[in-house]
Amino acid sequence: MIQHTIVFKLKHPPGSLEEKEFLADTFKFSDIPGVQNFKCLRQTSKQNNYDFGISMEFTSQEDYDRYTHHPVHQTLVKERWIPEVSAFLEIDYASLA
């Protein structure tokens, strides 16, 4: 199992229509085959500068690779993520057990 986690900060003002539309579009990732347990999250801690998170799981490396190369993922990254995200951190975990 691979846990794919991204925390990020948007260029849009908090509560703006642009922010809401961007966050709504992140749910398109959940339509990609192999994506499991998709969540879009709002940061509640003051211990870092990120405002949002996305979390999802993949059963295998092959599923993760298909997600990465899927046209929906490629389009969202190019048309939404790159122009609208000001900072992010991506972490991928595999279970030790």
Question: If strands are numbered along the chain, what order do they take across the biggest sheet?
Answer: 2-3-1-4
Largest sheet: 4 strands, antiparallel
- Separation of the first and last Cα atoms: 10 Å
The arrangement of helices and strands along the chain is: EHEEHHE
Question: Any idea what the shape is?
Answer: globular
Point out poorly predicted stretches: none
Q: Determine the structural class based on helices, strands and strand pairing.
A: alpha+beta
Proportion of residues in helical segments: 25-40%
Tally of individual helices: 3
Q: How much β-strand is present in the residues?
A: 25-35%
Q: Give the mean pLDDT.
A: 96
What is the radius of gyration? 13 Å
Number of strands: 4
Structural notes for this entry:
The protein has helices at residues 17-26, 61-69, 71-84, and strands spanning 2-10, 36-42, 52-58, 85-94. The mean pLDDT is 96. The chain is globular, with a radius of gyration of 13 Å. The relative contact order is 0.31. It has a four-stranded antiparallel β-sheet. The protein has 97 residues and is α+β, with helices and mostly antiparallel strands. The protein has three helices and four strands.
